[in-house]
Amino acid sequence: MEAIGFLMMAHMIPPQELLAQARLMEAYGADCVYVTDSAGALTPDGFRARVRALSKGLSIPVGVHAHNNLGSAVANSLAAVEEGATYVDGCCAGLGAGAGNAPLEIIAAVFNREGMDIGGVDWMKLVDATEQTVRPIMPRPQVIDGPALTLGYAGVYSSFLLHAERAAKRFGVDAREILLECGRRKLVGGQEDTLIEIAVELSRRKEQAGAN
To answer: What local confidence, expressed as pLDDT, does residue 77 receive?
Structure first.
């Protein structure tokens, strides 16, 4: 087994501060530390800077976990490998929170096309597994719709998407407005109940505006 440190919501602090946290994980015995873009808020330059800081500042491998809320998951993963990452997460069909994780079959195809060593993985078989096994069991397709895009834009934890959509429907407000407020409040995983509070506040404002 390997102990892997997961630096979630990596967009929220600068690269050198992220490195300081990674060094703590290394000191605690981590075998690898991940730059984890839980909000899908990073674009390639920001991803590069964080991976570069960890690759140069640690003596253990660096991994990456990207979400696709801004449509940058594959590009971010490619940039990460160019900066020294040796572990890259992906899921067939991008199955994951928000607009999904980096699609594994696309990562494999792109990396293979770029001449990178992917350990003999057959990207076409990954496509088959995606189409035949994964997509049929998915409750909803992974798409970058308005709320999912707002996650990345506002830097909000990807798992908040369904909570925001449910709260928006319950209180008759816009899920995007809930997520933008989450971003302003810098909420992180574990604070999902706050979305109800935000939805209630937005609903009251809407009612007051209607009354006026």
So the answer is: 96
